[in-house]
What does this fold into?
Amino acid sequence: MPDPLVLPRSPRRRGAVARSDTWWGRAFVRSFEELALDVGDLVAARSLARSGRFGAIVVLEAMASAVVDPGSEQPLMSQLKVERLDAADWTTFAREAARESGFTAALEVGTLPVDLVEHADEAGVEVLPGTPDLDSACECDAWAQPCVHALALLYLLAWHVDRDPYVLLLLRGRTREALLGEVHALAAAEADDTGAAEREAARVRAAQVLALAADAPTGHGLADATVAAYDEAVTRLL
It folds into this structure.
């Protein structure tokens, strides 16, 4: 298992954790806001997320946790679990990313192209978690989940997801290194296959030219219909 990703606290300023600037950040926020039992819980959760009461967030593959009021007499741990994509799903996603150099370049600089996600979705892989993919737990005495603490943790995660989509991909079960490694391997394999196909096509053409040369007609230049037909056949192969 890779080392956990430890995320620092987000800035304590109004709106810092309630607004997303990227399409994937907004999509992540929509996915968990639909879980709230009451709009008032979302308001309270945003306020708690901005309060600075959370410690660092620890993110592992398909899960995250943080402590509310660490160091106090009554700290609370809040946890999030996310449905993990399996290896076959990640291979499908990586294959879609490897098809276009622009997708690979975007992933390398830390952005998530919407077209890539849509292509993966068409291939049967939903990278963005939906409401059923999210589950939470908390040490508080709330009778239902997600509680305000869990929602606040989700808002904090959304702040980090907005700035680094690899936080989101890690929550789905894949590290940056593992994903990019598979994308590069698939791109290299596809390039090798393309090169091999081109070399084989060239070999076949060369063999056909040699076969034609062996049976080259003798005549009197282009005025001779047989020679002209031969020249045309060779030209098509070259």
User: Anything to note?
Assistant: The radius of gyration is 28 Å. DSSP finds nine helices and five strands in the chain. The chain has a mean pLDDT of 84.
